[in-house]
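Ticket 4471: requesting a sanity check on a complex prediction with PBG. Repro inputs:
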Amino acid sequence: MMDKLNILQGGYFNSTLRTWQSSGTEIGAHNLMYPVFIMENDDGLEPIGSMPGINRMGINQLKIHLEPLIKLGLKSVLLFGVLDKLPKDEVGSSADSDRNPIVRCLPLLRTWFPDLTIACDVCLCGYTSHGHCGVLDSDGTINNPKSIKRIAEVALKYAKSGAHMLAPSDMMDGRIIAIKDSLVEHGISNKVAVLSYSAKFASTFYGPFRDAAHSKPSFGDRKRYQLPSCSKGLAHRATARDVQNGADMLMVKPGLAYLDLVQSLKTEFPHHPMFVYQVSGEYAMLYHAAKNGAFDLKDALMEILCGMRRAGGDVIITYFTPLILDWLSLKSKY
Ligand code: PBG
Ligand code: ZN
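Returned structure tokens:
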């Protein structure tokens, strides 16, 4: 006779029983954040070659694109600005100019979609002539004090324009505290959250994004500020640093190759919502594999999302959000 403590299958033979076995790993609309690329031309719609199915959009196109998604329950977006005509310079002046597409878009999005939570990626790489995430010294390395000051200025501009959440994605020391200080100083620290890209690794999987956002560094790489991919220690120290500095939410990025850190960081910091960024390379990888018949996209994606939730992720930032919302609305087996 089988030891009754080893009989597992009696506990998950129908879908209701299975739901009970996966508490905390369900995917609902509130577990998804949708990243979008906003271009200068308000009526523009440009397919992104490296990310099939994803477009850069002008504000008017974005409105048309988001309307049905909101009806399907979309709760939050993450905005990236993409320059076309505005100038790029050494300090990323166009990041917070009044003509910046994010700055122009924020008040409109707030009016059109009052229940949508809007996060802004705050970084300089899409706006600097050299494509690095901060202000550089003459030797081409990051000048940290100048970078932090600039990033905090840009963050404040987005906050004042209507962002609910600021997400500095550069991975430098000291930027969370600078942004928080500035929110306090301007009396809006109770209305704006700071989502830290706390454990962001220097990753090959960002390749398609840099094409999408026109933000590839013109020389060198980002390894002096983003984390070395094999370092668990730095991921924990960087997250501890940002928690200490007042981050409201934490993140691990990319997702799939770093789920051990989602788990260990969630265990060390259980009181902060944990975001997992399924980045552009992960999107492209799944898209192409499914397109070439390796597997069914829905099955593979839902398995991965479940893994991200199981590891400890609370919110998954994913370019697949429209598809997932569609599937959820069909109330299928997932
Ligand atoms: C900008 C930024 C990047 C991503 C988000 N914000 C690229 C990078 O750091 O080089 C990557 C997102 C993705 O690949 O989907 N700092
Ligand atoms: Zn950057």
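Notes from triage: The first strand starts at residue 32 and ends at 39. Leaving this open until the requester confirms.
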